[in-house]
Amino acid sequence: MATCSQVNTFFQAYVDGELSTSEDVVLGAHLAQCVRCRDEITSLTEFHQELVGACAMHRQQGSLRGGVLAHLPDMEPALAHGSHPTDPSVLPSHSGVRFPLSLVAVAAMLVMGLMGIAFYAFSGQVVTQDAVGMVIHSSGAGAVLREAGSNESRAATLETLIARDDILRTLDDGQLGIALDRGSSVKVNHDTHLAVLDARNVFVYEGQAFFDVGRDRAHFFVNTPAGEILVFGTSFVVDVTHDVTTVIVVKGDVLVSTSAGRSALTRGKQCQLRRGQLPTPPEDASNQALLAWATGIEYEPDSHAAALYQELFGKDGADLVALPAEAVYAVRNLKDREVGGVQLSWESDGIAAGHCGYFLHVTDSDDNLLFLDTVPSNLFNDRNTQSVTFTPPDGPFSGVDVVHVRLIPDYHRGAIESAIRVNLIVH
Amino acid sequence: MKQLSDAALVLRCIEGDSDAFGEVVRRYESAVYATAHYYVGRYGVAEDVAQESFWAAYRSLRRLRDPNRLGAWIREITTRTSANWLRRNRSRLMQETPLPHRRTISIEDARKGPDVLLQREDLYAQLSRAIDTLPERYRLPVMLRYLQELSYEEISNFTGESRDEIRGILHRAGRQLREVLRNDEDSDEGQLSWPHAHK
User: What ipTM was predicted for this assembly?
Assistant: First the structure.
């Protein structure tokens, strides 16, 4: 019979009516024997019903269909291939980097031209518009790829294009190298199972993967069954074995988190993530075996695959242009005093929704990490809140002349921005 | 209209079949409404913004690069339409008190009596605050699940996250919501403070 901790992950899906038949059987067998889990399921079901009941008054009443169809506007003409898919008239105006439309148009034409050359030069390759990466190295038994929503697998060989939500599984002694859009790459060891959710988000179910993340303006997430790894342009190894994830940072900094809490990891450190538990304290990376396999995979910069990747993904910067630059502040600690934290302050715009959150990245002038944190978007919703202080988890630090504070906006969930000022809290 | 794929619907819309766009609205209106409600529900304009989002989507439909990702594309447009509404009305909103969300009381609800309604409204306010404490990428899936009771598949189509990832998100979010609401119940003040440094 499955143990309580094994079936625990089924509970929410059970209450939501989303368990697969086999999971249902496993859970049913367990519940027949376990009073504690039966009670837990009952309590969860009641909680769920309460929340759904509380939302009932705010639920949509009636269909929008008639109203929408009664006033349909004219459809605008298609844009040239390579342009941003969304309507510019609904794009919010950011206060960050802006490019004149004429420049964007010229850039789009250039990209189109280059893409055209690429299609011509590599006419044997069928390019799908949602490709987010490509296999640039394959060895041993190779790997199989399953497309999202499909039950059939096919071989993932050199130059196979990878789309969003594709699932890859390396075989026996098979190893893969994957280049992703926007400059990131993933080396995948044998017997590894992962899903490429998009060019900046990979889910590793099991096995080992080495990530080299492109340093652009967006963040990169790696999820595993045990937790989440948030990356700020770096290299690191993830080893997922059952419910334990080991993370080793080779270069740069990462923020690892589980549902219980989080921790920052710097170069040369490792830690372990377990579901529902705090990440283990960072320690010196000792398990070199976890790195050795990755150094064995080498990309050939002059190969046909590398050239094809470069042509398909290397020159299209449209998505980068669409995002405003991260904000970087350099704050001088004039008298070299002890720094107890970083204070962010802003003037509320009085609007109670629609703001984006930020990732906070604090380093010294040599880019050595002092600490990481996140600034939740709901802080900006409250007109009475106009400042917040972040303190280093290991207490105050000293001996730093200039503190660099980087704020990386998360535009997944909002867009309204407030001008933010940065101060150091010194003692 | 038989169950067509999103890509087939987009093609029909572009060919001028307005019934096909009616099907797009039927397929995504719950999700679009929940997204608009998340951003502008407290100002009582969720339905207006949802409608505006569909018009914006229809206008730009020929610009959609990947018709298989129609849902995620409409979600982006809804987020931006909501953000634009907030920006356009900024000066007016600054003069107003931004809470509470608009209530819609059905006959069934009305029959339950004022006490039950009041309890539910309190719980809804607590839930809204609890959702704000969740990590950013958990919030919309939670709104879609609890407000409109969408399935994991529907949430996945709309957010662009895989179904497995949605399952994981709702599992972790459910746990955190229970914890936050339990703490909220224990608190005399009934106000949630922002939990620092917990993602």
Answer: 0.80
